[in-house]
Amino acid sequence: CGRYWIWNGNRRRWFMVLEVFGAFMTSVAYSLVMQVPSDKIIPASVNGAFAWFIFLLLNNMCGLAFSTYIAGICMSMGTQLLSRKYKTPITVILIPSFIPFVPGADIYKCMFYLMKGQSSLSVYHLGLTITVAGMIGLGALSVEALLRLIKKAAL
To answer: pTM to 2 decimals?
Structure first.
């Protein structure tokens, strides 16, 4: 995390608020489509919006991979806590929570540039897609491994 983040006044704050609200609404919409139980839609969506907020805070300072990894850890920890609180399977909370992180634009750009014959741009966007997907998975795996270690130590 070498770079410093400057807010650029109120404009940056409003964009951040809109992005977090957009992440919340994306999670709500996906939850409705996937028929998540109604009492779990808001917690899953808040978890996704919070993870997106963490991502936005860190992205300008630390870069894409690290900020996605830390946001993935926060999202997975929130998922673990919420699934235990609501006594529901982890996937009911996790899947709507990570929907804002799906790198849809990069997947689209990868295929678009591949069809246009610009393989270097296509490979670049493929790398971004794999990085985001890998960091989300690694964050979830890190939380799961940590919880198993804590559980083993308690025995």
So the answer is: 0.87
